[in-house]
């Protein structure tokens, strides 16, 4: 579609709350969230074992297509005191020991809901990458509105529209756009 969001079900509000997500470790779906219209969020807790991780992984829309050298803005609303997250782009269809091809650390440092952001830069092109988020510390952290957008969007707007599709539409100089369903 025109909207450049790459995460499927970013607020856990689909009828099947974890549609688009794989969960592992100590993950709990909560329903007293910070946004009235989006009450669901996930709580990541300590796995209880030093060799195991707690986290979530998003498949995107039939995979997350990333391009070599392109930057992607990861953002999330989160709360937790001094909790470390590892944000990864992974190649999911491999049995290699190391699936991640880009990763960044993010520290959540507030007991109140706050938006956090980090830029991921893909070192290679992957048509069906996944986004994985690990809890790296021993406490708990709450996550809501998980998002991944290309930095390069139409007119450089943050969380904007896909540049390639909108530019193609703009170039044909239409007199009127009509979207079924009534926009």
Automatic annotation (TrEMBL):
Domain CBM-cenC: 5-136
InterPro entries in the cross-refs: CenC_carb-bd, Galactose-bd-like_sf, GH, Glycosyl_Hydrolase_51
Species this protein is from: human gut metagenome
Gene3D superfamilies with a match to the protein in the record: Galactose-binding domain-like (2.60.120.260)
Designated name of the protein: Alpha-L-arabinofuranosidase
Gene Ontology MF, one: alpha-L-arabinofuranosidase activity
Keywords of the record: Hydrolase
